[in-house]
Structure prediction request, 537 residues.
Amino acid sequence: MRIINTPEGTRDRLFAECAERRQVQNTLVDLFRGRGYSEVITPEVEFYDLFVQSGNPIPQEAMLKIMDRSGRIMVMRPDCTTPIARVAATRLRSEPLPQRLYYDQTVFRDRGAHQGESREIAQCGVELIGAVGEEADVEMVSMAVESLRRCGLRSFHIELGHAGFYRALAARMDMSAAETERVRSAIEGKNFALLNDLLEPYRGRPAFAALRRLPYLFGGPEVLDEAEALAGESVCIDYLRRLYGRLAAAGCGAYIRFDLGLVHQLDYYTGMVFRGYVEGAGAPVLSGGRYDNLMERFGRKAEATGFAVDADAVAACLNQTAPAAGRRLRIALTKGRIQDKALALFERMGLDCSPVRDPGRRLILSIPNYPLDVVLAKAPDVITYVEHGACDLGIVGKDTILEKGGSFYEVLDLGFGRCRFALAVKEGTDFYGTYKTRRAASKYPNVARAFFEKKGMDVDIIKIEGSVELAPILELADGIVDIVETGATLRENGLTVVEDVAAVSARLIVNTASMKLNKEQITGFIAKCEADLEGTV
Ligand code: PRP
Prediction:
């Protein structure tokens, strides 16, 4: 067979596309050199163990693996910071600190099948090794601002957070390590509903109010005042304020935002973290932070900080004109049962939904009296549109979120579309009481797998597209993991629930970049939804 396609997530680039990428790379490289940074080129293929040893948070399944002749597992370089830390700790060991290094290299990441994401990311970045404190962080952030400005972007923010702020608050709550991680993840995902539930048992503890408010603490420097009012004196807030003062004096103030809920990868990042958001990109185009423990893993104790720019993502935004203030938001709505309930909610909020009530064959409908366009889509597609930034918001069931996952903020439990995931079997059969490997059928294989893994059970999962109840009846499976709403389908087919797996209801989700770039509009919409939900409780 003649092969004419490139592997998924890779592509040929021709002419203008090459020129645009090259222009961004040249601009960044000129900037880095001008600031005294020297280039390092590391191998495209590295030992897998290098990244495990580094504590790098890239998940194992995101690394593209190959095997060398002796059977050792190698990876296509998934990140540039780890190999550069190795070089700085070994070949450059006797060089005086600080060291200023830059790279212009491709990294490779597997983003899953059919996600429309590139597996090859052209990264230009810097590492500042052996420099600590304000001076070094100002150098990094002002260079991040300058990177995007020199590339020609107009509408962008560099957003700062601090790993220590959450750590300090969590320490005052006396939570277990597992609970600290669950709360962190809810804050990072701006999952307000889950966060409230997780924190409820700790009501009255010193940092309760501050932690509850943490996901909302993003925006301009005023959030630092609010954080201080909630949390009391904080070395991290003082630090960020001083940093902001110096960045403003250096002419970067207009580009700086804060997100104190930016609490990702606490084991890796040790201090200030930052991300760059650009109008037109659905995900951050720049990310960086301080990771003072990394070098030590390679045998040389030295602080380190750095950032990387996604050159293609920046190039894709270059010709975008900044949208007029107050642009219309776009919400993806799951067709069917959820749609009706969501429209009822919108109408209670005062939105005129008549075009959506009578859509004909149209799939995008404008709300006449609110700056909102409604996109009608199937549940998994709602997530895809929101993740890629094609829609700012989405309404989708927790069942689909649990099955598909993804990177977005899950801001509200809308309370409708309530049902549950359950394990069910034919009446009179025993799913657990045997040593034989069991087989479970499900429309949601990931949910089913995660459930049995958590129980320490090795169960074969078989994917069924619909009417899953048939599988045990036809003796294709010993049980099913499926949605139960009224329980009628189970009853009428002689099945019974063995165990609940998870509760399900409709959720409001938000694209991460859009939340930052359209804060007023999106938080305004969330607040309107919340007001209705609180009124109906
Ligand atoms: C869902 C689910 C169950 C049924 C549960 O199926 O998979 O079969 O609803 O509802 P109940 O507890 O109220 O009886 P759906 O109607 O979406 O159809 P499908 O199985 O063909 O996908």
Remarks:
- Residues 323 and 354 are 27 Å apart (CA to CA).
